[in-house]
Structures
1.
Amino acid sequence: MKYLDEYRDYASVQRMAGEIRRVATRPWTLMEVCGGQTYTIVKTGLQELLPEQITLVHGPGCPVCVTPIAMIDRAIATAMLSKVILCSFGDMLRVPGSTQSLLDVKALGADVRIVYSPLDALQLARSNPHREVVFFAVGFETTAPANAMAVWQASREGLSNFSMLVSHVLVPPAMEAVLASPDSRVQAFLAAGHACMVTGYEEYLAISARYRVPIVVTGFEPLDLLQGVLLLVKQLEEGRFEVENQYTRAVRRAGNSAAQERVNEVFEVTNRAWRGIGEIPSSGLRLRENFASFDAELRFNIALEDAEESGECIAGLVLQGLQRPYDCPAFGKRCTPDSPLGAPMVSSEGACAAYFHFGRRKEDDQSLVSLAAAS
């Protein structure tokens, strides 16, 4: 396809991988933050093209994966209320809560519907004036403008039967949480290009300087990712720590000012719990007081018991880049996409699901290391 095939060109990918092998002289551990990048890396086998010195680990950049179990339980309880239509993106339906999923309660008769945009939920509210329509809003900075617009439009129209269950999270505080961990081995980041399309990348400058780590804003195609890796390796080898923009065809330093204005009008920054990680200060968004009447959490005021993760699931360690999906004893056995123990096995952007679907196993990595050592 025009404007896409050039970023998947095999010869170009091989040349870029060869340049990385030429430049890399020492071991480096890089983290791709975005789940969409993880999907491309695992599906296309990009790790296998890199020299043994370069290790890619997967970060907390899957919005479905980091939605806390308590919020899933709240969405389930809300969906079970009389006259409620709960709307969600498709992946959220299969994410396990403490005892069941949205798909389970849908099978029991709850009115849970898949939508492709918060504006679809807004239309449902217009069409069903005697029902309460709740949109389950998850995601990073990428989805925040559309969600903000839905609330803004509902306010403008006076749609009193529309509300939003908000579980928005932000990328930069998660990166800082990873770097602040005493167990972290991350030395550089591939930053999520689509989030930076909204926010720009000026906020990353302070993180890079504070922790002395290179950060490269990167796209999602194989050539994007390899170029991002090359830029990071060059910085690491030269002892530099800067923010660079590989994704110049889509990202500008200042981002999208119109989108930022709408988000800042409707939302404000708050502390947010991340599934498997815990609370990260100033890492989420909530509705401002002017729009509090559209906050489903306040509207329905559902009391819930404390929820706990499955003791078998190591999703938190996977999301922090401390372990691989195949390090989990339940991976591919008691935890599969059809019967997930944790959210990373559900979403197409989850590392566990990517490893499962594309056959990545521990023995594959060990074979690659042995092959590289022999050559």
2.
Amino acid sequence: MMKQTLALIVLGIVSTGLFSCRHSRQIAGTSFPVTDTTQHNIITKTDSASVAAASTYNKELLSKLRSNHISFNTFSAKLKIDFETESKQMSGINANMRMQKDSFIWISVSAPIIGEVARAIITPDSLKAIDKFHKIAYLRDLKNAQDVLNIPFDFKTLQDLLIGNPIYLTDSVYQVVKTPAVISFTCDSTIFTSLFNVFADDYILQQSKVMDKDSTRRRSVELTYGEYKSLDKIKFATRRRVFVEEKSYTKINMDFNKIDFDQPVSFPFTIPSGYSRE
């Protein structure tokens, strides 16, 4: 329960992936690349002028997307989480999340009626978590914490994932597909191939999909971002959907109902006496 809950919360608070709304527009489960064949533009020519034009366009695309990067000193949020796996469903989970940029990620998870069931604090070097239900404390070096998190993210990537910035976005842009509503493209990193859909009018994220290059793992995470709100010039997706596939699937819905940037935050974390340690 603890390992699964933390993995889902840390991965889930992080991201998104099935459906949601943006303003009055419905976000469908758009495939990658965009499959609107009525009005689209795919750059396929290989002559030098077309290649140069494509390179210029790709740079402008990345610049506009990165202009929406969320910068912050501190962040706090309250949200509701539902998740579903092949074997179980849970809904109405309450989570509190706090972050101090490049230093701390703090998460508290509560279940209806029961109250707080788990708490975790993550630093660039470590993960500490307590399972109050089973009275177990987990202590890990972050680089060795995959048995708890089950995701190969360093602190910075996890921080970007939680705040809503694109992850595994690199300069190696290709397979650009443009429609009037959405721009779709692909890029590569060392371990993953990442696919992105961004809204054509303001270049904020609609969806992204991260796929393991090792086909034997058959591991992917699809994220969808919706119901954006402007908070002091920050565009923040208050509804997130996550769809994780590996040997089985996990679906996660997240709805943020309270968000604060750059307000004082604290990160209380103690291991009660009598807890076993793993």
3.
Amino acid sequence: MANETKLTIPSNAETTEPSADGTNFSNRAQWLRAAVLGANDGLVSTASLMMGIGAAKDDAKAMVISGFAGMVAGACSMAIGEFVSVYSQLDIEMAQLKRDQRVPQEGLPNPVRAAMASAAAFSLGAAFPLLSAGFIKSHRVRMAVVAAAASLALTMFGWMGRRLAGHRW
């Protein structure tokens, strides 16, 4: 099998060079990806669910209860999906290290950390439309505030993701 391709895991020095101030942003990649996806999904799916309920019924309680149920279900789903995905990645990397008879030279994926980051971020994202709708009696104003809060939070999450990844404006 002369054409067999070997997967190699680069050493720490090759992939995780710290920035000028000593911060190593590569170490954030696992949990940051899970957190950004979780927050955006929590925000968009919960706001969309609440807007759909609000379009069918002008009851604030129904909107908030459905949003809360969506938040709990979505956070659980995101955590389980992220855990399984990252655990699969970990299995692949560990098997390759064993085949190469090497020890890990850099941080391996952590399925529990990724799952927790994803669930927490989903809940944080879902909190924006939930809190924006929970205190407004007027149906029209409540719908507009949920849409505005979701748009503002998406912008804020994008900015935070860039900052945590080490991008400067």
